[in-house]
Structure formats: C-alpha cells, structure tokens
Amino acid sequence: MNKTGSSKGFWTLRYTLINVTYFAAFCTIHAYAAVYLLAHGFSNTEVGILLAIANVISAIIQPVIAGIIDKPGPLTNRRFILIAVLTIMAGSILLMLVQDNKVIIFIVYALIYMIQFAYQPVMTALCFEYQKAGCDIYYGLARGLGSAGFAVTAALIGGMVEKQGVFLLLIVNVVVMIISAVVVFAFKKPEVKEVTVLDEADENAKKAMGTGSDSQAQPSYVAHNNIFDFAKTYPAFMLFLLGAICFFFAHNMINDFMIQIIRNLGGGETELGYANFLQAILELPVMALIGVVLKKISSDKLLLFSGVSFLIKTIIMFLAVSLVGMYVSQSFQLFAYAVFIPASAYYVSSTMEELDQVKGQAYISSAITVGGVFSNLISGAVLDNFGVKPMLLMGTVVCAIGVVIAFVAMKKLPHHNGGQL
After folding, report:
1. CA-CA distance, 157 to 268, in Å (whole number)?
2. Quick check: 350 and 299 in contact, CB under 8 A?
3. Per-residue confidence (pLDDT) for residue 5, from 0 to 100
4. How many whole angstroms separate alpha carbon 184 and alpha carbon 15?
5. How buried is 283 (Cβ within 10 angstroms: 0-12 exposed, 13-18 middle, 19+ buried)?
6. Residues 343-368: tens digit of each pLDDT
7. CB of 157 closer than 8 Å to CB of 34
8. Going by C-beta distance under 8 Å and a sequence separation of 6 or more, which residues neighbour residue 11?
9. 38, 263 in Cβ contact below 8 A?
10. Could you read off the pLDDT of 59-77 as tens digits, one per residue?
11. Residue 225 DSSP one-character state
C-alpha cells in the first residue's frame, strides 16, 4: 500500500473541512440573502432581480471555467477554489465598509453569490482529481458533513442575527473564508502514482482505438452534441426537464423568500435558522441510503416521487397558518430535494450513452438554474404586489403543472437504455 492511499482519514478530514467551510458560508450568503438585502433597503422585487442575475451569470461561466481548468495551464481546481475563497472574503470585507450604497451592495453581493455557486462543482472535480493521484478520499462522508455544516450554521446563526443584526453574517463569512483559504492552500496534491495515471491514460487510449482488454464491450458511438439530436434520442428526459424547471421554481421560491413566509406566520430569523437546519439535516440519511433504495425502486419512479413531494411541500406551505405547518412543509425536503439530486444523477448514468452523460448532468443543473431564475424574477414581484399567500399559490400551481409534465415524460415517452444498467 502506498503512503498516500494509507492515509484515508487524513485526506478525507482535510477535504471535509473544505466542504464544511463552503456550506457554512453557503448558509450565510445564500440562505440569508433575502435577510441581508431586505435589511439594507432592497425590495423583494430587487432581491429577486439580484439573485436571478447572479444565477444566470453563474450558469454561463461554469462551463467556461471548467474548459479553462481542463486545459493544461496555471489554473487548476485547487487554485480556482483558492481564488474564489479569497474573492468572497474580500467582497465580504468590502460590504462591511459599505453600508448605505445600494448600488455597490447590489454588485458586490451578486458577485460573491455568483462565485460561490461557480466553485461548488470545482470542489467535486478536485476530489476526483486527488483520488486519481492516489489520495483516498471518502467523498460521500465529506459531502454529507458539508450539509451538516450548513445545518449547524443555520441553527446557530438565526437567533444571533435576530439579536445582533445582519452585520454578523459578514463576520462569519470572513472568518469561515480565512479558515477555508488556509485549508485549501495546504491541500496540495502529492506527486505520486504518475505511472498509474499514465497507465490509465494508455489504457483509455487503447480502448478508444479498440485495442484494450475489454474493447469488445466498447461499441462505436457518436455523441449527440446537437440539442435537437439529443432531444430526439432522449425524449423522456428532455420533457422531464420542463417538469424539473417547475419543481425548482417552487423550491427556490420557498428558499429565497423563506424569511417573508416565516414573518407572515409570526416568526423571525431564529425560526429561519431552525427551518434551514431541519431541511439540511434531513438530507443526510436519504443521500446516504439512496444507493440501497435504487436497487429496489427505479430512478424514473423516484424522480416522479420527488416531484410529487415537491408539490406536497409547497401545498403544505401554502396552507400553513402557523410555524408548525412551515416546519412540516420543510420536512418534505426528505422526499423532495434529497431524492431528486441522487435519483437524477443515476437516471442519467443508467439511460444515456457514456459520451452523453456529462451533457445530461449539465442539463439537470441548467433546469435547476432556470427554475431558480424564473422564480427569482417573478416571485419577488408577486410578493411585493400581492403578498405571501398569492406567491405560494402561484408556486403550487406551477409545481402541479410540473408533476403532470413529469408523469407524461416518464410514463408515456420511451426511455433510452444506453447507460450502465
């Protein structure tokens, strides 16, 4: 056993710290975005516009960043994460100094919100990069503890913000980013197993040429890079994406404007912390056990189940007349988001040809982003002009339409079986 591979706990611990600090800041920047911006005089409509712009830019630059990192050059996964962490820290410090200028707050907050979204997939790529270099990292544990970091931060920060104000959010951002910068800076890939990496490259080259040991299992195939060819090959998946957009319209509507929903029910920032803690902590057992569930229930059925759960969650939130109803609604995160994310990944890997699977995962991410963008733009305006209940009614109707679309896609259209079943 090599030295690097024998220190699994060491590498997993350090990678876990990167995840925990990321999701702790994700809580203060994303979950408390509306709280911070409303406290600085922004309307709900303006909050929605800011978040929509940040989401759109993030969706555009993510593939650009990935393309640059993939090419040989000075920008690596680790260096990009370090740059992102330092930028978020600098932006938070700037926001500490600027308390009254809404234009600067708008620009800087949108920047740090967007950058944090942009480097989340890079963290995953960093794990796989280091695993190939011989670092034995337990990704599932690290990612799960990252969600726990979000949950604990949400539980602690809510009451503190209510008592001490939103300036505390910036202090937490800076402290967490300093810790993250130190951990990421020290997280250097060992120069080992180069021969193994070259051997893998040679083997892949042989497979591509049809001369590898299992070349008989590698049929010739052309990727469907044109979106129309892709849709023709995977009609069920492409129609399902429209349903997913509707699911995440409702999901993001609740998450982004949760503080207004809670205030309408008589609560405040403390209850917001509890609500975020509840939904984050419930993700852990489901994501840990989803592999076992998928052996019993197919991924397409789980996706439909998650869609119905998104709808039930939204209906309960609409009907809630007290904070108890809000907490019950948040509990359905257990069956909605926590099921959708792993089930969608498995659906792509089990139904699509290998050369289409990255695009399939990208389309899932795009559907989530598009749902969030439309939600940001529309929900804030509805909230300002009509109030909380009409906004939640709108989300319920949109989510219900999504469920109908998802059922048609998964039950009426053909599924491609080109993946690894």
Report:
1. 12
2. yes
3. 44
4. 9
5. buried
6. 887 787 778 776 676 677 667 877 88
7. no
8. 4, 130, 135, 136, 137
9. no
10. 778 777 776 776 777 888 8
11. -
CA atoms of 223 and 221, how far apart (whole Å): 7
The secondary element (H helix, E strand) that includes residue 421 is none
**Could you tell me the two tokens for 339?**
């099921």
Per-residue pLDDT of 315-325, as tens digits, reads 999 999 999 99
Domain 8-196 and domain 225-412 have a common topology: yes
Of 73, 317, 270, 50, nearest to 158 by C-alpha is 270
Q: Which option is the CATH number for 225-412: 1.20.1250.20, 3.50.7.10, 3.40.50.720, 2.60.120.280?
A: 1.20.1250.20
Q: What is the pLDDT of residues 77-90, one digit of tens each?
A: 889 999 999 999 99
Percent share of the chain, pLDDT over 70: 84
Q: Amino acid identity, residue 259? A: I
Structure token pair of residue 176:
């967490």
Cα-based torsion angle of the residue sequence 245, 256, 399, 307 in order, rounded to the nearest 10 degrees: 70
| Start-end of H helices in 71-138 | 77-97, 102-118, 120-132
**With b meaning 16 or more CB within 10 Å and e meaning fewer, what string describes 292-313?**
eebeeebbbebbbbbbbbbbbb
Average confidence (pLDDT) over 101-119: 92
**Residues 368 and 310: beta-carbon distance below 8 Å:** no
The answer to whether 135 and 189 have CB atoms below 8 angstroms apart is yes
Q: Is the pLDDT of residue 4 over 70?
A: no
Q: Which of 25, 22, 40, 52 is nearest to 256 (CA)?
A: 52
Radius of gyration in angstroms for the set of CA atoms belonging to the chain, rounded to a whole number: 22
pTM: 0.73
Q: What's the confidence (pLDDT) of residue 264?
A: 93
Check residue 62 and give its pLDDT: 74
Indicate the domain borders of the chain.
Answer: 8-196, 225-412
Cα angle: 64, vertex 69, 71; to 5 degrees: 100
What are the residues whose beta carbons fall under 8 Å from the beta carbon of 340, sequence distance 6 or more? 244, 247, 303, 306, 307, 310
Residue with the larger pLDDT of the pair 242 and 224:
242
Return phi, psi of residue 317, to 5°.
Answer: -65, -40
Yes or no: domain 8-196 corresponds to CATH 1.20.1270.10: no
Residue with tokens 């050059």: 73
Rounded distance between C-alpha atoms, residue 347 and residue 334, angstroms: 19
